[in-house]
Amino acid sequence: MENKIRFLVGMGSCGIAAGAERIKELLEEKFEHSNTAAAVGTVTIEPSGCLGCCYLEPVVTMIDSSGNKSIFVAVDSNFVVEIEKQLKTGQSEVDKYRISDSDLFLLYKYPRIALKDCGNINPESIDDYIATGGYSFQNSKLKTQNSIIDEIEKSGLRGRGGAGFPTALKWKALKNQQVKKGDKKYIICNADEGDPGAFMDRSILEGAPHAVLEGMLIAGLATGASEGIIYVRAEYPLAIKRLEIAISQAQEKGLLGRGEHCSSENKFNIRLKAGAGAFVCGEETALIASLEGERGEPRLKPPFPFEKGYFNAPSIINNVETFAMVPWIIKNGGEAFSKIGVEGAAGTKVFALTGKVKKGGLVEVPLGTTVKEVIEEFGGGSKSGKEVVAVQLGGPSGGSIPKALFDTPITYSDLAATGAIMGSGGMVVMDEDACMVDMARFFLDFTVKESCGKCVSCRVGTKRMLEILEQIVDGKGEKGDDEKLLELAEDIKAGALCGLGQTAPNPVLTALKYFREEFIEHIEGKSCRAGVCKNMIKYEIDNTKCVGCTVCAIKCPTKAIHGVKKETHTISQDKCIKCGICKKVCKFGAVDKF
After folding, report:
1. N or C, which end of the chain is more exposed by having fewer CB within 10 Å?
2. Distinct helix (H) and strand (E) counts, the chain
3. Domains of the chain
4. Does the N-terminal peptide bond of residue 505 adopt cis geometry, omega within 30 degrees of 0?
5. In sequence order, what DSSP letters do the residues of 242-299 get, joined into one string?
6. What would the pLDDT profile of 244-291 be if each residue is shown by its tens digit?
7. Which residues share a beta bridge with 4?
8. Is 550 helix (H, G, I), strand (E, B) or coil?
């Protein structure tokens, strides 16, 4: 039997950034454009999505004739040389690139549902997706609207976009909406991922676009909708490219409407709309307004989108991860999904681990897993070696929880009880170098810039909160500022029109709840323990250690350091911009930071 070797090169955005394109080119040169291929058998080199271990990119998966997989990580040009030796002679040093047993264990410790195909198939091949069981809903016994929705209801699937609304209830509401003959119902996929540090949806679209299309198809069949729209960020060019390829392939196979081979029964079609990257368009009515060509601003509810949505037609919106889970549920059964996770929080959830963590990337864990397990086991703990003090969950709409609460189970209710939210799945890890006051300022600054400005509570209230926080981090805070922040936050939550405004104060509220002493230090002591807030930092030269080498004076960008060669130098505080260069370049440890 002819030996067949298949290489899947991880070419999600993270892999490409790490040099995967060059690795793919080198593999093609070695095995497709030379005599090497003939010596080892038939070799194919294809792209794949992100496997999840972004910290190990570039990643190459090799699959032999028997289906055995070998995963190689942190590969470079020498890997191509060694893998050629291995295939030709069976002897090489390629094992040094092989993924460690511990990293491999973490990849597959828990069932992968949303990320099942990411990194394991060619996302630009519909045949690859079908070979793994994709588009099997056509062979399912669940042919009626009620039977599909009943199965989704059994699964306990809740929206993975952040709000956690039961998916079956939303679909049922759309199904029950009556429309005139010729009128449409719409299935909308929210792929407008805007949280800082979040890249779950992007990775699914880049690595498994057909799973999202199939999920939307099933939703259309269940609700009687005839058209699907994917609202995707224009900043995701690779995701858009692979979605366009996937839609075209599904049309050619007759799975979507408008295809050459499309049967009269398959009227459902899907199209893309690239959004301009407004965070507020994560709110469903603002997203619909943007789809209609209007400014992305929220609308009053009721009517809800399932009643009057896209151009007043009945519509429902689910996010990328939610749709990606639907095919697995239909294939394996709602009961199987419900047994994963915990009561009230069924299934798995994908998280993007970023910040001061060793193993940054994607992790899919059963709901009910603790925050601690995600950070310490999957994330490998602190990257800097310093103590992890907090984690930001839920992005600008979420909050920071302290290390003391890391045993909190990841469920909608348990996280809400801390003041944070699950959100779409961003998880930013912070060590003791983080200033929690400045982190609250950072997230509120993001929200202020992304507010559509439609309602006074959000437009004016968040701006006033930001001004107070900026005063505090500039060392100009006044006694009682923390109480003012609390008062404003409650007013904004009560008066804002949409979810963006209602949750905007959360990062500040959780920071005040768990890190109040840092606010007091900033306001009353004019000090920042993390040394982040520049106006509270002071650099001084220790005259017992300074040898007058002049290196710090030469490197200082503002010429704030003065002194004669071989004599003690001094820093002019009025000129110092607190950049820290002097401390970095001093070889004698003579510069102290206070």
Report:
1. N
2. 25, 19
3. 4-107 (3.40.30.10), 126-337 (3.40.50.11540), 342-431 (3.10.20.600), 436-523 (1.20.1440.230), 538-593 (3.30.70.20)
4. no
5. HHHHHHHHHHHTTSSTT-TT--TT---EEEEEEE---GGGGSHHHHHHHHTTS-----
6. 999 999 999 999 986 444 444 557 999 999 998 788 988 999 999 999
7. 42
8. coil
